[in-house]
Amino acid sequence: MTNLSDYKSDDPIAWCPGCGNFGILNALKQALAELNLKPEDILMVSGIGQAAKLPHYLKCNTFNGLHGRTLPVATGAKVANQRLVVIADGGDGDGYAEGGNHFLHAMRRNINITYLVHNNQVYGLTKGQASPTSDKGMVTGTTPEGYSICPERPLALAVASSCSFVARGFVTEKEHLVQLMKEAIKNEGFSLLEILQPCVTFNKVNTYDWYRKRAYKLEEENYDSTNRAEAFNKAMEWGDKIPIGIIYRCARETYEQKAGLTGLPPLAELERKTDAVEELFQEFY
């Protein structure tokens, strides 16, 4: 059995005091422990940003790459070694702006990975600029007269893309968030879990209290997460009420199944046919 201490990293944490990322880190440790996953069986992939620092503070395999390029690396790692539990991690800017193109195609392919997106509605690393999820009218350092663009609705985009698992959590609802993480990781296919995570330094609008007044659990309603039309409406709901919980589920063939990769050993364990490679090289000499 694994426990929380198995994932403890000795690296000093560089987040601001009160940052919602602390809660996400603690919830993820608990989820991994409850799933009895060993650190050596997990790969965390991240890009650039405050959210992307999370794997630094978790004892497991880690790949820290370029801004917005988290999902291609996670996809390649999963295809190369299906034994790994691959979790991609990033923020709303990293995932929905720079990484928006990869986000769309990862859902379309339905690769069997989990994507955790910390949504604080600003760029938290680079001094609080407006992000794709910033509310219209929001004043930031780069939008002093108010953000003039309508915000992106990533969960609605995910439902429209037939993403096999779409959910949203709120960092102060720890036990609820832990259960969502566990369901996302266990899901066969691409899992999107967006986590509302207040930025205490740069976002003075979407605070902990702001979310507490609005967030409500779908589990407490008579809600069918397999109803795509209803899921789309819930995914578009934002303002006075913000749903948290599993918004949409659908059973789809995974990329690995479509490509005939299911059950294959990791690439590193396959027989290497070096003679064939040498013959190919000789053609160009």
Question: Can you characterise this structure?
Answer:
With 285 residues, this protein is α/β, with parallel strands linked by helices. It has one domain (4-282): Thiamin diphosphate (ThDP)-binding fold, Pyr/PP domains (Rossmann fold), CATH 3.40.50.970. 31% of the residues lie in helices and 17% in strands. An 8-stranded mixed sheet has the order 2-1-3-4-8-7-10-9, with helices on both faces. The chain has a two-stranded antiparallel ribbon with strand order 5-6. β7 (165-170), α6 and β8 (191-196) form a beta-alpha-beta unit. The mean pLDDT is 92.
Task: Record the SSE blueprint.
Blueprint: H1 21-34, E1 42-46, E2 61-64, H2 70-80, E3 85-91, H3 92-98, H4 100-109, E4 114-119, E5 122-123, E6 129-130, H5 154-160, E7 165-170, H6 174-186, E8 191-196, H7 208-212, E9 215-217, H8 228-236, E10 242-249, H9 255-258, H10 274-282
Parallel strand pairs: 1-2, 1-3, 3-4, 4-8, 7-8, 9-10
Antiparallel strand pairs: 5-6, 7-10
Helix pairs in contact: 1-6, 3-4, 5-8
